[in-house]
Amino acid sequence: MRDASPQTIYLKDYTPFGYIIDAVDLTFRLDPTATRVISRLSLRPNPEASDPCFFLHGEDLKLISAKIDGQDIAPRLIEGGLEADVPNAPFVWETEVEINPQANTALEGLYMSNGMYCTQCEAQGFRKITYYPDRPDVMSVFTVRIEGNTDTTPQLLSNGNKVETGALSNSDAQFAVWHDPWPKPAYLFALVAGDLVAHQDSIVTMSGKTVQLAIWVRPGDENKCSFGMDALKKSMRWDEDVYGREYDLDEFNIVAVDDFNMGAMENKGLNIFNSSCVLASAETSTDANFERIEAIIAHEYFHNWTGNRITCRDWFQLCLKEGLTVFRDHQFTADERSAPVARIDNVLALRARQFPEDQGPLSHPVRPESFQEINNFYTATVYEKGAEVIGMLKTLVGDAAYAKALDLYFDRHDGDAATIEDWLKVFQDSTGRDLSQFKRWYSQSGTPQVTVREDYDGDTFTLHMSQSTAPSTEQPNKLPQVIPVAVGLLDDAGNEILPTQVLELDQDEKSFSFSGMSARPTPSILRNFSAPVMLTQEGGNSRRAFLLAHDTDPFNRWEAGRMLARASLVDSITTGSAPNPDYLSGLVAVLSDTTLDPAYRALMFGQPTQSELAGILHESSTAPDPQAIHDASETLRAAKAETLADMLPDLYAQNQVTGPFSPDAEAVGKRALANAALALLSRQDGGATAALQYQNSDNMTQQLAALAALLDVGAGDDHLAAFEAQWSHDRLVMDKWFSLQIMQAKPEDVADTTRRLTLHADFDMKNPNRFRAVMGALSMHHAGFHHDGGAAYTLLTDWLIKLDPLNPQTTARMCSAFQTWTRYDAGRQALLRAQLERLVATPNLSRDTSEMITRILG
Ligand code: PHE
Ligand code: ZN
């Protein structure tokens, strides 16, 4: 079989590789423009494969030589790699290639970032380093020798354990040899070389082994590592305590790089992080940054077992490692911080990113069945919905059975490249439960709609539930899924008369009865958001107000407030009505309840995003008017500021944090609540309190919240300039400065503000963080992006066209800004379509971007 860039790749076409690689020996002679890579593979025919074709992937490689068992050969160079005739017996394959890291702006393969060499191989970057069967089911033991200039690359890092170092004779170069004893696929390979300093520590694992830990950063960033190191140690301990998983090498290294397409990467023993996802200090990072860093460090560390020790057979199985690892990092965050707050944050993210994906042209199953460019499938559906699916499985089988199944999974599949079938079979075998229907969560795309009707006959209370999922082109007939619906019942005084029960809605329609009810109870449905569905239920706003006041499930209590706000906003947008007074008074009650966690109360301040509202209007067959949505949202915020006016100064004052800065859950919660109050308070005092806070703040959370509040009331221009002067040396802080101005601009000014910022000397399109800070903010400002005339559409498209030849992956990811285009009125759709067609017609457009736009155009 040859898989030289076929157009579309199908899950059903999987076949194993024809050879087994017993060992990989790599030598790198580093040079910015002409790095030599010598690869020696010890191979033998794979008895389980039927196709003996010897095809190796390779891209942008200059072949210097190829040998079999020491004899020069001339392989056939074909698109996407090479082919050769090889012995039907064990043999040694050797190639030498030359690559140019400096010219690599795609940030995939071996590239340079700020003078430092680094790699990114997931999903298919290793083929840009050497000829290799670049597929996750080919696992081997790697030994890596790196040779580099002693001055420019004093540190030479790779996977596994460092086994040898030394000077190279007759030169100013040195070498290091790394050996990774654990067989791994090429996508987990990593190499870093540069002038780096380490923040070091160590940990003793559960079996008493000492592991050396290090976070490697550019000189100057040493003081931003201690939080990440603590997070790493907590993660290692947590995985031992909760999953019984111990770390398996003598050292664990993390490196921070400034130019990175994604958040971070779980390379075996050598995690590489976008610097924004690891560097933290009180002065430069917000509380949200701290929380994200903690979660990402945990996520990458957890991959050591879910992803590395057990990897994926092929890229269709991506959710096997990602869904599970996201689920595990969510569990970790819930344990480290507040569980209800963590759950609400996850659901907010799911609704903001996954629901629009699942309800638009990019919708795909958690396990897709085909793709053109795998990089386009690192999506909210694979990650976030993939994690929800595991959460449902755990809810259905129970905590103890889940723990038992996971033990079996690690026992049975350690060292394997596994599939979703393997994963489900573990649960089936250990619980005896038939999961064939549950599997539809992996194969059917779309967000199920659950509708609940109620019945009461004086004794029995019945919930009639139904489910449906909108058809899609590939799946015109969606079958019913197993939906765990957690339900509790409350009496009129708000007492819980039936504690949470999990009902299994596994048919199109199903009814659940509760007898012996002397009065009609109030149900609290889909507690803790027990399934990633959209819920329609009875009771309207009065039910919501009741649950906002009384629900004993913290998620649903918050949800009731959210739904009240949503209903109020939809009414204002469609009928021009004033904000719902029940929502406002309910909010007063919740916010005054000091027994509630400040972080939780801070979340209560929130209201549905404008993009979410656009989606809801679209679902109810109304073309959303972005300006009207914006105005209604502002009106509701103003009404809140007014209704809460008397409370705001106290809420603000009572939640000030004194003493040295700490990003612990309690302090974070207080700052979140105080800053939510500050945002509204500024509307009353014209920004006086915010200006004071800006002046006195000793941390970025306070400084940035004050600046945002000042910009919001039109009083922030001087502060903005001062902020720039203070922070122009810090790339990560300047990303915030770029974003904030766009986020806080009036809709009519968004495109101009963005254009002006692209002319700023520090706007560097080659840095993904900076590009996203600017273009991401543009696309996320709903009313600004969709402002009349379409200037923002054109601007974003111009920049996507400019970035695509340099960095296809980041360009393609940004294209999702257009995924909701069919929601809007005919005028906007025409403007959007014109830009999408201009983009897709661009000569030499990357496979990444062209697949995205083609799918979006439908
Ligand atoms: N596997 C990484 C993670 O989820 C994400 C990633 C994918 C990073 C592709 C880089 C490239 O942790
Ligand atoms: Zn991951």
Task: Report the average pLDDT across residues.
Answer: 97
What's the tally of helices? 27
Q: What class do helices, strands and sheet pairing give?
A: alpha+beta
Number of strands: 31
Question: Care to describe what's here?
Answer:
With 858 residues, the protein is an alpha+beta fold. It has four domains: 9-302, Immunoglobulin-like (Sandwich); 311-443, Neutral Protease, domain 2 (Orthogonal Bundle); 449-531, Aminopeptidase N, middle-beta domain (Immunoglobulin-like, Sandwich), CATH 2.60.40.1840; 728-858, Peptidase M1, alanyl aminopeptidase, C-terminal domain (Zincin-like fold, Alpha Horseshoe). Helices cover 41% and strands 21% of the residues. The protein has 27 helices and 31 strands. The strands form eight sheets. The chain has an eight-stranded mixed beta sheet with strand order 6-5-9-3-2-12-15-14, with no helix packed on it. Strand 25 and strand 26 (461-468) form a beta hairpin. Helix 1 crosses helix 2 and helix 16 (665-685) packs parallel to helix 18 (700-712). The radius of gyration is 28 Å and the shape is globular. The two termini are 31 Å apart. The structure holds phenylalanine and zinc ion. Zinc ion (ZN) binds at residues 299, 303, 322, 325. Phenylalanine (PHE) binds next to strand 20 and helix 2.
